[in-house]
Specification:
Two copies of one chain form a homodimer.
Chain A: H1 5-18, E1 23-24, H2 27-33, E2 44-48, H3 53-66, E3 70-73, E4 90-94, E5 101-105, E6 110-113, H4 119-128, E7 133-134, H5 146-151, E8 167-173, E9 179-181, E10 215-222, E11 224-225, E12 229-237, H6 242-253, E13 261-265, H7 266-272, H8 289-299, E14 304-312, H9 314-328, E15 334-338, H10 340-348, H11 350-357, H12 364-367, H13 369-376, E16 407-412, E17 415-417, H14 420-436, E18 442-447, E19 452-462, H15 468-485, H16 506-518
Parallel strand pairs in A: 2-4, 3-4
Antiparallel strand pairs in A: 1-2, 5-6, 6-10, 7-11, 8-9, 8-10, 12-14, 12-15, 13-14, 13-18, 16-19, 17-19, 18-19
């Protein structure tokens, strides 16, 4: 998009509608929003900050009139997938000021919120209400948007961890500026709008996640009643990951394990609990398996570390604990449980504990425990954010800003069946290819549902190092290609790689036909997951 | 649709493609398929019976060429909603011959099947495989299509009772004749196709349930591992239903009750376990509350009867049983549990038990127990089908055929929040209105999910009685209107009432725009849930 007269006219119209303070072309602002954690080429030319649903409708109508594409973001914390950077040149539609919680129901366990509501805000809201309900938190920043993460099909840790499966009733601004509600909410006065995904007739809400078919300005997120009992666990294994996955699947299938378990490799633990060992590697990258093996012993990191929690009544948790112990026997080297008493203790002494475990002679895996315990109970934490600084030579700042600090981060996130064989194939391939491109294979395997896993493979680097941006993207593409060949497509894409969403043949034609029907001018987020 | 030359030409072309035996214009066949359990006006002019997915594509392509609309049915057992009768004049596309089970995975607990596969066929398949997996069965006939019920958002009894929430990977013949797979299955070789609902980019599967946007020729249905333990329960209450709903909700929310519970009123039990008491009413209809009260005492029917099951490990079931007992105390008069030993006993002696309980001095509610125990364990049963003959003066035939036997049946099925207040409002309104139109208020409240209920209100009558067809439809519409006014829209519609799917304003415009984009000639099931 060239800054032509159409843009000038559009900006004037938006200023008139939204007020001057809600439209920014300030060079510093523009420069800031156009930086992600990897190289991007499309640029935002301006930023609009509407405050209401109706304002969003006006923004979209004017964008249509002046034929200026808009790129909506919620809070713009989509690190590793593109942050706030558009897929193609556009004006940024920052929904951060739509930050109202518009409905809350303790009895039926839901909350309705706008895209600017952050994880922290929702958590604080529930605390202030003295609610017995838990949200599900991702391991990303407390400043992330709940709606944004759900629409990108992000996930967390509790039984509500598959976010998109526990959300409904989207209010959507269409690319024409009109608005609809999905599900039963479209019927005037229908009180089941926040309670059911389906509605009557074709279900439309699926169209608006990972999509450019509309702008969601409100959604309902289901919450879970705090269980009577919760017991977290971590385990370590210097053994293959495959048999662990196979051992856990039956417990997930039969409902003994209701939450989302995560299994990280040694690189995941070391990068999550400290920065790159420049000393031990004499400044060389990548951290080779041989050096990693030495560090594993030194830092007491296992090859694989897992975490999860048992939720339920006291009886259920007790039984699940015994079953989990039996299932893991022989497949892991150590399991530790954190019951409520120990959980509370950890929460109270989090700070001193951190300083204690900072000592190198303690297990590094255990350093991650406090933040793990938080997310396992639906509490957002900033504790995992530092890992973006893994390859930086400067320490993690007090207020991390991975974009501005030029942290390099690309997530490659393949979907695989929940079997040991598949997880082994995916992780073996990721380890081999990341290292061959000069990156550490930083892997977390999330046992997201009974039947499928998502492995998130972080390519973490320093954008200040010449050539690394290109090499990381090359690695990302080569790895994604290989995974696709093997039958493991990505669950989510970064803004520079939307071509993987291309539907070959009839599938692409359908998505494109719907796109053309709903957005004839190509106003909303052109290129974003749009099947072309 | 007039039987014009286009139809003649199309029939010739279909005959050439499918073979003559797969195309029928036989007057008796046509007459048969055009009968539902209520009055309909649209007619099928011919029946196509393709055997393969590719045949379906050919049928659709030819339909486009000759501009003849097609109306797909799976097995045509959509009793109470329209059976096989189209919404508007069309040629019937009977998918009954697509009856293959194409994939099955014991480890990952799923089965992939075509629309002609019946509940019985799937059940027998699992038995023959000696599978540890359970399907979820509806209370309708064993000859019902699994795919058809899922696409209509039907439901059953087990933890997989919300069928559409446990299905994915649709293969769809589009109205153009092209085909797509939803979810990850669109990527060549992607092995997670049967394992995840989402896929990459906008999720399309929601578009193809309760819809005319495509013809699903295959889908994956998730199964559940047989639990270590199962304990069924029935309860009776001569007390209001509201407090029962409120007492059960917390147990559903916290996962102690994982299945779908159903609560029926006295009319539901009496109509499910015998025919209309012509004697006690001196031949008059409806069965008034005063007479019903007498019969209740006589037949030992409570005002409300509930059923459900506890699934899990032995420990979980034991704990859930205690919690259920505590929750229901004071709200119901009697709870009976059927543990595995008693369940097996029932199964073995089902026939003698039936003859025993046929004696009028035994509780009529208990007569329904054997078939309840079946469906609570995922076994299809024909035991509920006789209720369509409630108002008939002839006995239920050995092979019930409600359409041909001119049974009158219309389901009115509002969605409401899972609260006592809402269920009370819905059931009170249904009782008042059904009686005022001369019908018995035959109500079953299904606690479908943690947050919402569906009440199925059966208007059951004898189509041979003059005027009853019209009166039943008047009652259906008046009741649906009143429920909508109060905020309780239907979850599903009959073929004569698709106008309720009309989306006013932007919603209808969106559905219509998608419809026009995907089906420019209006080839697939015109009028069906199509938002116009």
């Amino acid at each position: 998009m060239t800054v032509g007269s159409a843009l000038t006219d559009a900006l004037a119209a938006w200023r008139e509608t939204l007020g001057a303070d809600a439209v920014s072309c300030d060079a510093q602002v523009i420069q800031g929003v156009n930086v992600a954690t990897f190289q991007t080429t499309a640029r935002a030319a301006a930023v609009l900050r509407p405050s209401t649903h109706e304002d969003v409708q006006q923004c979209v109508r004017l964008a249509n009139r002046f034929r200026i594409p808009l790129y909506p973001i919620s809070t713009g914390k989509n690190w590793g997938y593109g942050s706030r950077v558009p897929v193609r040149d556009a004006v940024l539609l920052d929904l951060g000021r739509l930050n109202r919680i518009t409905d809350f129901n303790e009895e039926l366990a839901y909350v309705t919120l706008e895209p600017g509501v952050t994880q922290r805000q929702l958590y604080d809201f529930l605390q202030a209400k003295d609610s017995r309900l838990w949200m599900d938190a991702t391991g990303s920043s407390p400043d992330c948007s709940v709606v944004g993460n759900t629409l990108e099909r992000g996930f967390g840790h509790t039984p509500m961890g598959d976010h998109c499966s526990h959300a409904c009733g989207f209010r959507v601004v269409l690319p024409t500026g009109d608005a609809i509600e999905t599900g039963f909410g479209r019927f005037p006065g229908a009180i089941s709008g926040p309670l059911s995904r389906w509605g009557l007739g074709p279900a439309l809400d699926g169209l608006f996640s990972q999509s450019n078919l509309g702008i969601v300005t409100k959604m309902t997120v289901w919450l879970m009643p705090a269980p009577e009992s919760v017991e977290a666990f971590v385990f370590q294994a210097d053994k293959p990951v495959g048999p662990i996955v196979d051992a856990l699947r039956p417990l997930r299938m039969n409902g003994l394990l209701r939450g989302v378990m995560h299994i990280g490799n040694d690189y995941k633990v070391i990068s999550g609990s400290g920065q790159y060992p420049w000393e031990a590697t004499a400044g060389k990258t990548p951290l080779l398996p041989k050096t990693m093996a030495t560090l594993r012993r030194e830092l007491r990191i296992a090859q694989w570390s897992g975490s999860g929690a048992l939720y339920g009544t006291r009886g259920q948790v007790k039984e699940a604990k015994a079953a989990l112990g039996r299932a893991l026997r022989g497949h892991v080297d150590r399991v530790q449980f954190f019951d409520e008493r120990r959980l509370n203790l950890f929460r109270r002494i989090e700070r001193p504990y951190r300083s204690i475990t900072g000592r190198r002679d303690l297990s590094r895996a255990l350093q991650l425990v406090p933040q793990l315990l938080d997310v396992l109970q639906g509490k957002p934490t900033a504790g995992f954010l530092g890992s973006a600084y893994w390859r930086k030579k400067t320490p993690v700042p007090a207020a991390p800003d991975p974009d501005a600090d030029r942290c390099g981060l690309l997530w490659c996130s393949p979907v695989a069946p929940n079997t040991g064989k598949d997880v082994t194939l995916v992780t073996d391939l990721a380890i081999e290819m990341a290292l061959s491109y000069g990156f550490e294979p930083i892997i977390s395997v999330s046992l997201l549902t009974e039947r499928m896993t998502i492995s998130t493979i972080a390519l973490t680097y320093d954008r200040e190092v010449a050539g690394e941006d290109a090499r990381a993207m090359d690695c990302y593409r080569a790895l994604t290609d290989r995974l696709l060949e093997r039958g493991y497509p990505p669950y989510r894409l970064n803004v520079a790689s939307m071509d993987y969403a291309n539907g070959a043949g009839a599938y692409g034609t359908v998505v494109q036909a719907i796109r053309t029907a709903l957005d004839p001018n190509g106003t909303v987020a052109p290129g974003r997951y749009d099947g072309r």
